[in-house]
Amino acid sequence: MYILILIIFVLGYAAIALEHTIRVDKAASALITGVLCWTVYVVGASGIVDFDSISHAVLGLFQEEGVPTDQGEIITHYVTHFQILEHLSEIASILFFLVGAMTIVELIDAHEGFAVITDRIQTRNKVKLLWIVSVITFFLSAALDNLTTTIVMVSLLRKLIADQQHRWFYAGIIVIAANAGGAWSPIGDVTTTMLWIGGQITTSNIVTNLILPSLVAITVPLVYLSFKMKGNLVRPLKSESAEHYLNPTTNAERNIVFFAGIAGLIFVPVFKTITHLPPFMGMLLSLGVLWLITDLLHKSKNVEFRTKHSVVGVIRRIDTPSVLFFLGILLAVGALQSAGHLRQLATTLDSSIGTNQLSGVYVVSILIGFLSAIVDNVPLVAASMGMYPLAESGYFMTDGVFWEFLAYCAGTGGSALIIGSAAGVAAMGLEGISFGWYLKRISLLALIGYLSGAVVYILQSSIFS
Questions:
Q1: Secondary structure in 3-state letters for 390-432
Q2: pTM of the entire predicted model
Q3: Helices 190-198 and 203-228, packing angle to 10 deg
């Protein structure tokens, strides 16, 4: 059963990658893969789960609930009532966050709020626009996070680029920039946040030591493209509906919704830092406040207008298949984590390479970055945090080389494949980018940037150590 789970995951992964060839939506493949992985796991749990690893507290709770004392029954109950629900809570927090962010962006778009930015970006030159979009993404993702930033920037691209293939290419670069920008900020990427909360890294050191490698990770692809790309882009024609002229939003309303929406997104990491509540709580609070603002702004207007320009109306435009795709792929990865595949992978890496020398630390971190392009970086980092306890000195102390380099590698390595990061999956869903298209046109650029940044970090550490 242990091997069968892995086989199902690989086949499901292949179906997602070949979505356009087999003509099956990636969301369907992801959902089937996620559910089948958990089904096989729970059926064969008695031969996979180590009974001794189940805590005495959990066993005591089972006794209180009257669960049969048979070892097999206890293990099955453990999988269905603890492991899957634990993963579901983590997945739900991501999905609520995603839905909240997408709704805020759609609300801004419904009020034509993005015109505040697009009207100021006048250039149609491919190279100039590429640099402008990438720089905005890089620094915005450090202030927000890479997922939210990708949603915002991909929405902006629709106002700036008419041709789908060109827009897909820019969206791919946005994924690289968003992941690079998130890696050097404690709130920019979920894995960096995990290390920050766990005490493995501190804010000042992670910013100081990772900003240059992260900047290189996006700058190298941009410099290369600056010599390859030529010409100008065609902007989409501005199409206004009759509603735009009969009952338009005023400039004041557009500005209020735009700045309130962006302020709400920026507020999320601040709220998390102050309250220590999950990020989705801050996102839902921001959505609620923006909902209140738009209802008050349009309370005197007709019902049809109010509906189209409130959360009630725009939430229908949310890309539900993308949300379901997220659910399926995260369920599948959760099954691999619970069954022990990812921990075994991390242990194998450590035993074959070793982390008792600096060179081994670098190699293990780089390989984890590559692996994060295939499976979610969160369980990989979680497995690493479990394998290597914090030390008082050396590579594994707070702000040690291993933790800093792991934050960089896990954050930027996922850009190599479009389903290797939350930012990539969001872009995939919003724009319908195929796995194969991204692999052919973006993956090599992401890989070059990732390795260039890794080299810069190694050199930087050698010079200042």
A1: CECCCCCECCCHHHHHHHHHHHHHHHHCCCCCHHHHHHHHHHC
A2: 0.75
A3: 160
- Check pLDDT > 80 for residue 371: yes
Q: How far apart are the first and last CA of the chain?
A: 47
Mean pLDDT of 280-289: 91
Q: Which amino acid is at 294?
A: T
Q: Residue 46 carries which DSSP code? A: G
Phi, psi of 145 (to 5 degrees): -170, 165
Burial of 133 from C-beta contacts in 10 A (0-12 / 13-18 / 19+): buried
| Residue with token string 């009257």 | 66
CB 137 within 8 A of CB 406: no
Reference 450, options 458, 440, 461, 441; nearest CA is 458
Tokens of 421: 């990061």
> What's the DSSP call for residue 237?
P
Q: How many CA atoms lie within 13 A of 414 on its CB side?
A: 33
3-state per-residue secondary structure call for 154-170: HHHHHHHCCCHHHHHHH
Residue whose token pair is 């990658």: 17
User: Nearest Cα to 421, choosing from 217, 274, 284?
Assistant: 217
Q: Which residues contact 160 (CB under 8 A, 6 or more apart)?
A: 118, 121, 129, 133, 233, 235, 236
Beta-bridge partners for 34: none
CA-to-CA distance for 122 and 119, rounded, in angstroms? 7
**Residues pairing with 397 in the sheet:** 391
**Listed residue (109, 213, 103, 221) closest to 170, CA to CA:** 221
Write down the pLDDT at residue 265.
Answer: 81
How large is the average pLDDT for residues 61-90? Answer: 74
Average pLDDT over residues 421-425: 83
Number of neighbouring beta carbons within 10 Å of residue 138: 27
b/e map 332-347, b = 16+ CB within 10 Å:
bbbbbbbbbbbbebbe
Whether residue 286 is predicted with pLDDT greater than 80 in this model: the reply is yes
- Token code pair at residue 230: 């030529």
